[in-house]
Fold this sequence. Notes:
Layout: E1 6-9, E2 11-14, E3 17-24, H1 38-61, H2 65-78, H3 81-90, H4 96-112, H5 117-137, E4 148-152, H6 157-163, E5 168-173, H7 181-189, E6 193-195, E7 209-213, E8 218-221, H8 225-246, E9 262-267, H9 270-278, E10 284-288, H10 302-316, E11 320-324, H11 343-348, H12 351-364, E12 369-374, H13 380-397, E13 404-408, H14 411-415, H15 417-423, E14 427-429, H16 431-438, H17 456-472, E15 476-478, H18 488-495, E16 499-503, H19 507-514, H20 519-530, H21 535-545
Parallel strand pairs: 3-4, 4-5, 5-6, 9-10, 9-16, 10-11, 11-12, 12-13, 13-14, 14-15
Antiparallel strand pairs: 1-8, 2-6, 3-7, 7-8
Helix pairs in contact: 1-2, 1-3, 1-5, 2-5, 2-10, 3-4, 4-5, 6-7, 9-10, 10-12, 12-13, 13-15, 15-17, 18-20, 20-21
Bound molecules: phosphoenolpyruvate and magnesium ion.
Amino acid sequence: MTAVAHRWTGLAVAPGAAVAPSWRADRPVPLDTGPIDPERVEQAFAAVAADLDRAADRVRAEGRQAAADIVAVGALIAADPDLLDAARQAATADPPLPAIGDAVEAYAVLLESLPDEMLRQRAADVRQVGRRVLERLAARGGGPAGKFVLVAEEVGPADLIELGGADLAGAVSVRGGANAHAAIVARSIGLPLVAGVDPDVLELPDGTPLLVDAEAGEVVADPPPADVARASAASERDRERRVRLAGERGLPHVTADGRPFTLFCNVASDVEVRLGLGNGAEGIGLVRTELPFTQADHWPTEAEHRRALAPILAEAGRRTVTVRLLDFAHDKVPPFLPPGASGLAELLGHPAALGAQLRAALDLGRDAELEIMVPMVTDPGQMRAVRAAAEVAAGELGTGPVPVGSMVETVAAVTGIDALCAAADFLSIGSNDLTAEALDLDRTDPRGRTELAAHPAVLALIGRVVEAAAKAGTPVTVCGDAGSHPITLPLLVGAGVRAVSVAVARVDETRWRLRRLDTGACRAVYREALESRTAEEVADLVSRRIEVVVP
Ligand code: PEP
Ligand code: MG
């Protein structure tokens, strides 16, 4: 019997197409099973340890030593005799699963009470192992096997970072839009993601063949062969296109009229560092350090920062790495902060939290060209506070001074740009937030699109920043998505931008485009754009006047 296809439409927030069995990441674990033989508890722990060992070996074979070590710690914990003993005893309770969950939690809490920071840090690993064990005992299978499409009510950026690897083929989310951070990560790693899909999709049993077609904005369960063929053909075309774009890696980073440009990439994980540098990015222009912590229930400790940063810095070697301080703003405010909080003000109000992140970055970044970047700056005084804290941290660690730069992504920062240039060693324009604020849009608003940065009001703000930076001799980069969009990139070049930091998956295409842009022609179009009225008018102007043929 052939299964009947179910079809849903949604927002295509990260391009591409994929077909693979579905796997729901956030299915609640049913805790009301019958009695559980303590033998099975032991087997479940052993199976989780074996899974994690295999994952560590796979990651190590990919050359990601630091990430492999982190995964391997989970395997050691799953084999911890004390933890196993506590769980075995709990299995005799009725019902057993909640008791096993409580035993694991008690063990995690015990670790958290220890004075040693590294041991306290293991509590999170214990909880993760416990979750996997409970999933196995509840017959959830303990995770996807082989290629899969991730399905969740709200796919989080951390899900993609944790699960992102050869087996994750695509993702489907009920909530979220193009500007949400999961979408940014998905675009970064080149993973098709369709968001805003009907909640019915959550009811699919794991293992249902699922087509994610982010070109058509469609998700199809049990897809008919014709749909699979169409999606496969699209993926093949995309693959060929990527191969052609990749052909210019290693060619000089100069525009058509011979002006040098700098091409960096944005990351939140070591996977992205490896892909980005492999694509020929010269360094890392933005590490989104907050993404692993958006669900945190406390300020990340120094050990937690180290755990997140170590694989990234290890992968980056001696390159430039611009570590942005925690940016708990908008859709990234974790539950321990009040909704709508200003992340930077909170961070500056918690000097221990700021110091913890700075020490982790400065210590682990000794071999790299490390830079510290401050998000959502509204006032140069904030830069002075961070610089003072960075000097204290460097003094404690015996490291040298590092450049401390400011993101320019608030209208207030642009208004006070001269003073900001004096307080910052470098600037990086966050066109995503700057556009949202200038046009009064929420970051999760489905109307938000990268090309809205082409709005004359936004272009004028960007132009003002570039001009002030040039006058002050302060280097300026654009790290928002406008730095790689076909419409906005020529306008940025026209405004005088010569350095961009772009999503990993956009590095090759951005190089291709920049090498074909003429700065004089871009300047003329930019000037004319400033006289236009809407982003659409400007987009039309760019399309008519700037032609870059891409594969
Ligand atoms: C931006 O706002 O342009 C930016 C790069 O920061 P994020 O997207 O992480 O908020
Ligand atoms: Mg921002």
